[in-house]
Hints:
Blueprint: H1 13-26, E1 35-36, H2 39-46, H3 50-62, E2 66-69, E3 73-76, H4 95-102, E4 119-120, H5 133-147, H6 161-175, E5 184-187, H7 189-201, E6 207-212, H8 216-224, E7 228-235, E8 238-239, E9 248-253, H9 267-280, E10 283-287, E11 312-317, E12 329-332, H10 335-349, H11 354-365, H12 368-391, E13 399-401, E14 409-414, H13 420-429, E15 432-433, E16 449-453, H14 459-476
Parallel strand pairs: 4-15, 6-7, 6-9, 9-10, 10-11
Antiparallel strand pairs: 1-3, 2-3, 5-12, 7-8, 11-12, 13-14, 14-16
Helix pairs in contact: 1-3, 2-3, 5-11, 6-11, 7-8, 7-10, 12-14
Amino acid sequence: MELHIRLTGRHGLTDQLYQQLCEAIDSGYLAIGTQLPPTRLLAEQLGISRKTVAEAYARLSSDARLHAVVGRGTFVSDRRTARPPARQPVRLAAADTLERWQQRATVLARPALQAPSRYDFAGGLSAKAQFPYDRWRTCLHHALRRSQHHPERGVPAQGLPELREAIARHIAFARGVHCDADDLLVCNGAQQALDLIARVSIEPGTQVAMEDPGYPPARQLFLALGARVQSVAVDAEGLCVEQIAPGTRLIYVTPSHQFPLGMPMSQARREALLARATELGALIIEDDYDCEFGYQGPAVDALQRLDRHGLVAYVGTFSKTLLAELRLGYAVLPPSVLRAACVAKHLSDWHSPTLPQWALARFIDEGHLSRHIRRCHGLYAARRARLLNRIEGDLAPWLSAVPASAGFHLSALAAPGVDIERLVRQAREAEVGLYSLAPFFVETPPKPGLLMGFGAIELLDIDPALDRVRAVLERQT
């Protein structure tokens, strides 16, 4: 360790060294228990005599700021340190801008100190216990070996070619997406993909249309970039396309599993959306966040498959299919958007971390991703069936499920007279985590109901949890 000491002149060196070490200790820069360099080493670093350093250490020891341990060295003592002088804050010129960012709502961010409920129906959480950690560890070891022989600056902002090729094969098979590796951009989660597309598409005043109810982080991102966001209502077929305003430049949708209500967009509505986007010259962001898990009939292909004019930016993530901690997502982009987004990605963080990219490429190529999805599909299907069975059975007087054929959450609308906010509070008191739909509505009148995730709750926990919910509902009526 090299101390940050600056001595001036050749006189009073002991006093200078003593004062600077006092300030470092009293301010907490040198924390309690920190070991100081030996007198000989510090003297060599500062270009002064060892005697000068020894005298300064002796004075600090007599002040109880330092103590020596025989055979180990000299350490900062455990004594009450003086508080550094209070800073006199100056209002920054950017204060108004900073305040606007601080006020952005983070609806889906959980309070750090909020303890999880014993039974939790949180949306967006996957079956973490099912993740094949041993297989992933093997892929990480492969990635570490690759990194030993790879040039440090050899990773493109667009992402490793082998990962982009693996993703392109996977989503062509699983979601019907038309693309090759050159159309893909690897990102730190789907949220960064949204951010990059928005940054290169939006200027202050840009008209953006999105679903209401919808995904709050996307709305807040668009607003933060200065967009005018139009809330477009949804019905049983999805986004009400005829309501999209003239002058719209960007349209954000979740067509395969509407967030948060869950219904898929109909074929007629998809064709109408593409026709409206063509008329406006608008880019469509298709957020396909959890649609590799389908339960009824043939899988619905991605909207991007119908695109004939390069208007759809397809966004996917591995946070839902694998682990949220991976923070790996991707976007399939039209050529002009891709080039701009790659520049924005490079300016933002150069490229996504290389080790998880290599590991994920290996994980996909060896078939682990497909096997994991098949395993989780059976798990989620059983949980979904149990949840629907209860909602359509003994909970039917109070709740009704919104039809949904994909993902691992569903929405349940409340019957007249059910106080959802009260239900959420009382359920938490009964150790059940329930979540209201209200925060996802902006201008459309909220539909009282619940967003019920079944990705993280165990099958055997669903009935005990819903028994407690039913008891709360019975007390309300």
